[in-house]
Design brief:
The structure holds 2 protein chains of 2 kinds.
Chain A (H helix, E strand, L loop, with lengths): L1 H17 L1 H21 L3 H24 L4 H6 L1 H7 L4 H30 L7 H25 L6 H28 L5 H30 L1
Helix pairs in contact in A: 1-6, 2-3, 2-6, 3-6, 3-7, 3-8, 6-7, 6-9, 7-8, 7-9, 8-9
Chain B lengths: L7 H33 L13 H28 L2 H33 L7 H20 L5 H29 L18 H48 L5 H10 L1
Helix pairs in contact in B: 1-6, 2-3, 2-5, 2-6, 3-4, 3-5, 3-6, 4-5, 6-7
The chains are: A mainly alpha, B mainly alpha.
């Protein structure tokens, strides 16, 4: 448990001192969302209709953007070998890395999303469903993304490959996340979709570290 | 059976004997099925002649799914038992499956134009087949992304297993999301919902597609094995020349570079 916390602290400290990753991800997220009104026109009616979809897609792409650094720097400098040799199971190490990744990329996205929703004139009634959905969905995306990041370690063009691997896996959170916002505007309510999203996140919690650790093991031998 | 075929030389012998029979049978059944379904079968009372697209579309869709299942099972065998042929089988099957998926998407689009009035809709079934296509592409890209071929093979096996877990999740999520595609009409409780005059040519075509897959799979596996053998022989030849008499220019060049 000590090693687990130490690994998270290590990653957080690196992110805080370098600062680049959080800025890059947040900047991409905000810019991508802000570009849409220029692309599709400024009518509030139209923007309100597509706001949730745009925010979710931009958050998803921002998460993909940050994935290639999840294991790559530790793989490059040999730190990953030491982590694999330590007494902590590799699955737990993956969990710690994913948690740090979520704290440095997913959580900032969740915090910024209400402001962007305001920009796009999303109905305030739908705001809790959007934020809560992102709060549940982004950890799932960090966990699932860890599998793809581990699989593509040492590949020739990891960036393109990572995107191709991860986008099909990200479809379910995207569908349930945007459906929750839609449903919160109708009589149906967002609850059912949020519960399904939570089910996805909870299923990914044990399964994704297993798969990612297996992928890391074969990358390291 | 698995252990018996684990010896590549034995596999080459048996598959070599089976190859012409499988090829002949698949061509014969496909020719029979095409003539039957495209010329002899009656037009549908609602869809008219357009129903003939279904004789390609439906078997291609069945194959797209079964081949993915095959890739995942072969990957599991490769990971668990380190079976020497399982990885080769999975890698040989994936592009064939991707081609079946593409055929399924293309014919579905051609059928959708006259029937639904549009080439493409974001319908649950269509979307999940599109995702299946991307899973195939991801697998193929991952397998070929590494300088070390065995690395790519193992990473691909893991991805195939992750994909098989994810496939039902994608399927159900898009099913609840949006749907226009008709429900299953052949494999369902209470018997098939289509007429026998259309069902029999459909099943013949499905058998033809299955045989075609088997034939192409063996062909590709044999090619991959031969390729490996050629590479090993070339390496062996270089090493032998290198340590041997030193008269050959290649060996001399290598020797100079080494010094």
């Amino acid at each position: 448990m000590h090693a687990f916390a130490a690994l998270i602290r290590h990653d957080l400290r690196l992110a805080a001192r370098q600062g680049g990753d959080i800025g890059l991800v947040l900047g991409f997220f905000v810019l991508a969302v802000i570009l849409f009104p220029f692309g599709i026109g400024p009518e509030p009616e139209l923007l309100r209709r597509v706001a949730a979809g745009i925010i979710w897609v931009a958050a998803l792409l921002a998460a993909v953007l940050s994935l290639d650094r999840l294991f790559a720097s530790d793989y490059g400098d040999g730190g990953l070998d030491l982590i694999a040799l330590s007494a902590m199971p590799l699955e737990l190490a993956v969990l710690a890395k994913s948690a740090a990744h979520w704290l440095t990329t997913g959580l900032p996205l969740v915090v910024v999303s209400p402001v962007l929703a305001l920009f796009l004139d999303l109905d305030p009634v739908a705001l809790p469903a959007l934020v809560l959905g992102l709060l549940i969905g982004t950890p799932a995306m960090s966990l699932i993304g860890a599998i793809a990041a581990a699989l593509s370690l040492g590949a020739r063009r990891p960036g393109v490959l990572l995107t191709l691997l991860v986008l099909p896996l990200y479809l379910p959170p995207l569908i349930f996340g945007t459906a929750a916002v839609e449903a919160s505007l109708s009589a149906e309510g967002a609850r059912a979709h949020l519960v399904l999203l939570a089910a996805l996140a909870l299923a990914a919690l044990p399964l994704a570290p297993l798969a990612a650790a297996a992928a890391l093991r074969q990358a390291l031998d | 059976m698995l252990n018996y075929l684990a010896n590549p030389a034995r596999f080459m012998r048996i598959s070599g004997a089976a190859l012409p029979w499988l090829g002949g049978a698949s061509l014969f059944v496909l020719a029979l099925g095409l003539v039957w379904s495209l010329l002899l079968a009656p037009p549908d009372y609602q869809q008219g002649e357009s129903v003939r697209i279904m004789f390609i579309h439906v078997p291609a869709a069945w194959m797209a799914l079964s081949v993915y299942l095959f890739v995942a099972l072969a990957s599991a065998v490769a990971l668990v038992w380190r079976h020497p042929l399982a990885e080769i089988a999975a890698q040989a099957a994936a592009p064939i499956g991707a081609a079946f998926t593409l055929i399924c998407l293309a014919t579905g689009s051609l059928w959708g134009r006259p029937m639904w009035g549009t080439w493409w809709v974001w319908d649950a079934r269509l979307t999940s087949v599109l995702v299946l296509f991307f899973l195939y592409l991801g697998y193929i890209a991952l397998v070929n992304a590494f300088d070390d071929a065995s690395r790519g093979a193992r990473a691909g096996s893991l991805l195939a297993l992750v994909g098989i877990v994810n496939l039902p999740i994608i399927k159900f999520s898009v099913d609840w999301w949006n749907t226009l595609h008709q429900p299953a009409s052949v494999l369902r409780l209470g018997g098939p919902a289509i007429d026998v005059s259309l069902l029999i040519p459909l099943l013949v075509m499905a058998l033809g597609f299955g045989l075609l897959f088997g034939w192409l799979l063996l062909l590709r596996m044999r090619t991959a094995l031969n390729e490996r053998k050629a590479r090993a022989l070339r390496l062996y030849g270089m090493r032998a020349a290198d340590s041997g008499d030193g008269e050959q220019p290649l060996a001399a060049g290598l020797a100079v570079r080494r010094r």
